Amino acid sequence: MDVGLRGALFDSFAPEARADLATFFEPVSSAAGEFAVREGDRERDMYVILEGEALVERGGVEVDRLEGGDHFGELSLIASRPRAASVRAVTPLSLLRLTPASLRRLTKERPDLVVPLLEVLIATLGEELSSMTDGVRALLRDRSLPRQRHVHATVGGVVEEVWIGTPVGALLPVTVDGHPTVAALLGERPVSMATPLSSDAVITPLTTAHWEGRRIYQRSLALLLLEAADDLGFDLSLDYSVGLGQRVRVETDDREAAAHAIETRMHELATDDRPLHDELWTLEEARAHLEESGDRAGVDLLRTWRQPALSLASYGRVYAPTPGPLLASTGPLTGFRVVVDDGALLLVYGPHGSQATPARETPADARHSRPPPPPLLDAALRASFHARNMTREPQRWLSSLGLSTVGELNRACIDGDVSEMIRVAEGFQEKRIGRIADAIHEAGARVVCIAGPSSSGKTTFIKRLSVQLRVDGLEPHGISLDDYYVDREENPRDAHGEYDFEAFEALRVDLFGQHVTELLAGQAVRTARYDFQTGRSSPAGGPELAMGSGGILLLEGLHALNPRLLAAVDPDRIFRVFICPLAQLPLDRLRRVHASDVRLLRRIVRDRHGRGTTPAANIARWPAVRRGEQKHIFPFQQHADAVFDSSLIYELSVLRVYAERYLLEVPQDHPSYTTAFRLLGLLERFVSIYPDHVPPTSLLREFIGGSGFEY
After folding, report:
1. Residues 643 and 393: beta-carbon distance below 8 Å
2. Which tens digit of pLDDT belongs to each residue from 5-48?
3. Which of 232, 377, 387, 399 is 20 to 30 A from residue 570's alpha carbon, by CA?
């Protein structure tokens, strides 16, 4: 009797034994185009193909073909391993399936058949492993194996001898003070928790309490989003970050249903605790995969990729380039939301992915479905609303230039006219500044309040805005908030007992408001002065200032957008401007340049050659700078009458000339090296441009030097 158990796997069985063995297999089928098994699945069945053809796919890329008599799934059956590849039917498939339950029944009822079957399966796996080993040896050029069996790992000051190849994650706590551990620091270099130890090392947990840890958490969550969307058949791409979340573009007519389905699937995948597959792909393999998956930005980026290979990672079937470590599995990803956001979706990171205080532990059965607190969701939606309005015009302009990805920018730097690209970018900014000046003039404002986060280019913006205001017949006068501090002993203190010079209460708001009111009334005013050495305030120790009929006050400061600053002044006489580098390009389907990284690189370059501040010190100070911005600037950006995007499409190509060398100055054992290492990887993706064609009036000159303005 032909029982279908044919092929090399069963040639050693006599016909009667083969017939008896077949009774423990059950018939199943798959239609053309369907998956018989999917990569990452945890079901442990083994299959034998009776009729039909199938493709074996890994990460969406074809790696083998199967036909009648072939088998697959024996490793999952024997070793209880998740599926390492998908099998998709090319034609209708007729299969026989051996389940773990059937194997146990076979062991009990026919032990005489079990041993020969397992011998054949192990021999088959051995042949495949031998072939694979030969291939790996060829790829590695016969690299020698480790010469030691044990290494010493130092964790928390305690030295422990462990087997070589031990994953670093096995030596670290799952959480630290309620914050999940997302990666390990070998010295100060971030690596995945799955990284095997190959030598003695000092290992430290990197958690979401650290801003680099939150970046890893956010990237992992974004990869999980792509995996869930692919499972459901949605075509989406990640848009710009809004601090507490990330905008998501999706092609669908029912976004409410899409948001609910994607969020539900993400929670399911997180509950399954899917392992991360982090693999090294050749450049040719990666390019073919990205082309097939529709990642145009990723394909463009690979045109200037200098290495012969790159790392791609996946939580199942969707592989995407990754610039650094990701969570070793999906289990720790909790508390996120996917909601509709004005024609798109918004992935809200949740407590662990933002600077919000992590919620208290919840029971294990509820942990994966608990939404973030409503205030966090509301804050994310508000941030997205403002970011959407602020980035709309710059994004239209970049699209009109055909520069919508980092790869396209690199191609333009190589093949195009770099000087023309710089002139157009600078011209766009100058036109925008002129429009803001015209709006100020038309509004009849007498006070212009300007605020933005660190290294936004506020100083040069004010210089250029002053020129445009003069073109409109106005006479700008500057006044500094720094001269209106209270005496140091009256200064409020922070939670650590230190003077909080960024607090709104650190300013003599009443005196400042009085002086502005008198100036607007046409009176001459002796302004205040603050002595930073003595910490003493002199209410009339500054220069005398008077404004004529065409005079206008320009005020720049941390609290310039806060309505409380000029509460006594007629709001119709005030014009507020928010400035920040906003429009940033995508690197690929998963990653975009962060505006905060651009500002940090600006600051590192400026302070290294202009102020003598080391890059390591600047990076160490950055979290405190960011906290001040998020407390005193970003909550008030909705009060702005105009927004100025200070980003320049070409600036990272220019900043690389300076920043790359400065970042290499950061010692590898310094805590700042974690960030320096990541920023070096970011800069490596850009083609360098020397600053020869950057005009002296450019905002970028504020950071690289050579400005035509006096500061």
Report:
1. no
2. 666 677 778 888 888 888 898 999 999 989 898 887 778 888 98
3. 387
Helices 673-683 and 595-610 pack at an angle, to 10 degrees, of 110
Q: Angle, nearest 10°, between helix axes 595-610 and 651-664?
A: 60
Residue type, 243: G
Q: CA 464, CA 425: separation in Å to the nearest integer?
A: 15
Q: What is the pLDDT of residues 186-209, one digit of tens each?
A: 989 999 998 888 889 999 999 999
Count how many Cα atoms sit within 13 Å of the Cα of residue 516 in the half-sphere of its side chain. 29
CB 177 within 8 A of CB 164: no
SS3 string, 251-315, reads CCCCHHHHHHHHHHHHHHHHHCCCECEEEEEEHHHHHHHHHHCCCHHHHHHHCCCCCCEEEEEEC
pTM, whole model, 2 decimals? 0.78
DSSP code of residue 169 = G
**Does residue 377 surpass a pLDDT of 90?**
no
What's the chain's average pLDDT?
86
Residue 307 CB burial class (10 angstroms; 0-12, 13-18, ≥19) = exposed
Amino acid at residue number 110? R
Reported residue count of the chain is 711
Q: CA 410, CA 688: separation in Å to the nearest integer? A: 9
* DSSP-based three-state secondary structure for 350: coil
Alpha-carbon distance of 138 to 188, in angstroms, equals 33
Which residues are CB-neighbours of 364 under 8 A, at least 6 positions away? Answer: none
- Name the phi and psi angles at 550, rounded to 5: -100, 10
Gap between the Cα atoms of 185 and 187, Å rounded: 6
Each as own residue / partner, the long-range contacts of residues 352-357 (CB below 8 Å, 24 or more positions apart, any chain) are: 352/179, 352/180, 352/208, 352/214, 352/217, 353/208, 353/214, 353/217, 353/218, 353/221, 354/214, 354/243, 354/244, 354/245, 355/214, 355/627, 355/630, 356/244
Across the strands, what pairs with 336? Answer: none
Residue 696 in tokens: 């002296």
Predicted local confidence at residue 557, as pLDDT:
87
H or E segment at 596?
Answer: helix 595-610
The residues facing 587 across adjacent strands are: none
Tell me which residue of 352, 199, 365, 173 sits closest to 267, measured CA to CA: 365
Structural domains of the chain ordered from first start: 8-139 (2.60.120.10), 152-207 (3.10.20), 211-372 (3.30.980.10), 445-474+555-711 (no CATH), 479-549 (no CATH)
